Structure formats: C-alpha cells, structure tokens
Amino acid sequence: MFGWTRGGSTEMQRREAGRLVHDSNDLQMETPPKKSVAARGADGCHPRLQLVTAPQDCFAVLEGALCCIGPFGSRAVRYEPLATAVVEFRRGALCTYVREHPYGLLPGLPNLYCLDGAHRLMWMADWPLTGDPCARIVDEVGGELVVESAAGLAVRLDAATGRFIAASALSAAAV
C-alpha cells in the first residue's frame, strides 16, 4: 500500500489520499501517518478507543455561598445566599436544591429553595411547618423532593414548583 511510485499524481490527489508524500525529484515516497504512543493500544498496533465526555460542573459551599468551581479550581459562578448561609445543596435534573442555615431568617421565610441552571431562583418551598425548618435534603424521587424537618418529619414537595404535597414520619428506608 505504501512505497515508491513514479510521479504523475497531482497535489490534490495526494491530499485526498490522506498520505504524507515526500518529493524527491521524479520519485515520491508515500509513508503512513505516524501514530503517537497514546493513540496505539496495548499491543502497539490497534488504536485504543477513548470515550470523550464533557466535564461535569463541580459545586461546593465556600464561605457560606454556593460556588461552581471551574476546571482549574477557580470560582466560575458564585451564588450568594438569600438570607444566612448555604449549608447544603443537591443537584437535580435541571436545577439545584439549596438549604440555608435556618437561624436568622425572617419569620415565615423557608430555608429551602431551588435554583435553575443559571443560578436564578425558581421557587421557594411552600413550607407547612412553622417553627420546624428543613434540616436535610433527602432525595428527589419521581418528581417529588423529599426533605427532613428538624423534628424528624419527612416532607414531600413538588420538585418543579416547591408546593407542599405531604408530611409523614421519616421511614428508615428514606434515611
């Protein structure tokens, strides 16, 4: 396939063939493109396949604010808390559920809310329990956000709107 050929091929034909061609007067030597060691498999012959995935966003609570960390460790996006300090967050399908520290909030203001992908407020929880703030985000199941109150009740909210669905004793399976 590769070797010596007598002239006559045009530059366009050589480019279309995808080969490296070295001109030497009338003779042309065609050589295969070189592969790097990383592109070869363990046997040195067959190419190694690699899956390429987009990097996932990395979130962290830094100094009481929710931060999206960039690829080199710098803060790409910083979301300041509504009132006190961000204590916990959980990534949803297209959003982020955020729980703030409950002490220091205005009366009636819930400490649980949801941000969209651009860190804009989507909803604040329709929290039914006055004096019993959200203590932990448990899980998102079937379009419902399950959270635990400070008194140990499992509170189910609609994950899309934050509306209250039901409250019950927290089961051992949910923990």
List the helices and strands and how they pair.
Layout: E1 4-6, H1 11-17, E2 20-24, E3 27-31, E4 58-62, E5 65-69, E6 75-79, E7 86-91, E8 95-100, E9 112-116, E10 121-124, E11 134-141, E12 144-149, E13 153-158, E14 164-169
Antiparallel strand pairs: 1-3, 2-3, 4-5, 5-6, 7-8, 8-9, 9-10, 11-12, 12-13, 13-14
- Specify the biggest β-sheet: 4 strands, antiparallel
* SSE run: EHEEEEEEEEEEEEE
The helix content, as a percent range, equals: under 10%
- Structural class per helix/strand content? mainly beta
Mean pLDDT value: 76
- Spans of at least 5 consecutive residues with low confidence: 1-5, 14-29
Distance between the termini: 65 Å
What does this entry look like structurally?
By secondary structure, the protein is mainly beta. 4% of the residues lie in helices and 43% in strands. The protein contains 1 helix and 14 strands, in the order βαβββββββββββββ. It has one helix spanning 11-17; strands at residues 4-6, 20-24, 27-31, 58-62, 65-69, 75-79, 86-91, 95-100, 112-116, 121-124, 134-141, 144-149, 153-158, 164-169. A 4-stranded antiparallel β-sheet has the order 7-8-9-10, with no helix packed on it. Residues 1-5 and 14-29 have low confidence and may be disordered.
Overview features:
175 residues, mainly beta, 4-stranded antiparallel β-sheet, 1 helix, 14 strands, 4% helix, 43% strand, globular, disordered N terminus
